[in-house]
Amino acid sequence: MDVKKLAEEAESYIVERRRYYHARPELTCEEKNTRDSIHRDLEALGITDIRDASNCYGLIATIHGGKPGKTIALRADIDALSFQEETGLPFASCEAGKMHACGHDCHIAMLLGAAKILQAHREELAGNVRLIIQPAEEIVAGANWMIEDGALEGVDAIYGNHVWGTLDAPYVDFSPGSRMAYSGRFDIYVNGMSAHAANPHLGADAITCAALIIDNLQRYVSRMNDPLNPLVLTIGTIEGGNRFNAVANRVHMEGVTRAYSADLHEKVMRQIIENTAKAMGMTATLEYDDVVAPVLNDDDELTQLAQDVVTRLYGEETLTELPPMMGSEDFANYAAKIPAVFGFLGCRNEAKGIVYGNHHEKFDVDESILPRGTAIMTQFAVDYLAKNAPDQA
Fold first, then answer.
1. N or C: which end of the chain has fewer CB within 10 A?
2. 42-91: per-residue pLDDT in tens?
3. Are strands 126-134 and 59-64 parallel, antiparallel or unpaired?
4. Of 75, 166, 72, nearest to 387 (Cα)?
5. How high does pLDDT run on average in the chain?
6. Alpha-carbon distance values, 193 to 51, 203, 239, 277, 322 (Å)
């Protein structure tokens, strides 16, 4: 099977599917039409083993090879973001305030391209290919929902990738080690006491206390945390008080942490928050959740296999090394269960004016990378199954 040629022949299909889904974005936990459309796309390719997830708008499909062997999973996420698109593309979002600003439309299209090739050549496969169509990546919840619904049952390893707006096309990264960060999500509640703004000494100003908590948490990042252990702590929202001329009796803040290990961040944050409030004569509480583990390419065989695929298809010069980043990805939840590898596909092209990063109102991709993404994904699946075939094991 000449995967590179087959992917090039499927380019019009892959690009058309990308544009179709780009124009019809659905937000996290609203992906029903997207899921249903992908279901129909898979049926049109002749795939019959398709099951909608029972607990979310995902689906699970399996391409059964003609020979016995292992099962490799290919994953695509499908949710969009609440952005008003400003790309000016002829296939821009038809939904006000919704946009595929992270590239999940590309992930759908590349996976469909891989499914098209693999289904047509299924008799040559020494095993099976599981297709995992996952919602709710943007709240790092969908992977766990898919796992709970049985997406990984019988799966031996999983492949994932992401189009990346700060990496030039056509470079590809499958570097070993840390790739994306652990993420924690938290809420802080500050409890003060109301009073007239003219008599602040009769109350307990929760807003002033919240400001000190924010400052002290940032001092933890810059002065208590080991600078060789990357840590980001961001307060994303703050809300409190009742009116302009009253001392605020309450404040609620939301935020995230990013690191490459959880370490003692929650414990130290709790101490800072509670003790800062106590020093101001108030109370404050922290609610903290570990949202997702770091994405690590820590399976040497899978990482090398992915790199070999890129080199064989597109030359060693296509491989590059992105530094570890503080963004997070719930693909890590699959990797916590089974061997996994995760890569990045450069989609930036300054000559074409494609220069904006993911999560930007003008984010776009150089579509020439889409058949490449399909080819790499497809070849990885073929090579993994061949390498682990019963007569090769």
1. C
2. 999 999 999 999 999 999 999 999 999 999 999 999 999 999 999 999 99
3. antiparallel
4. 72
5. 96
6. 54, 5, 15, 12, 50
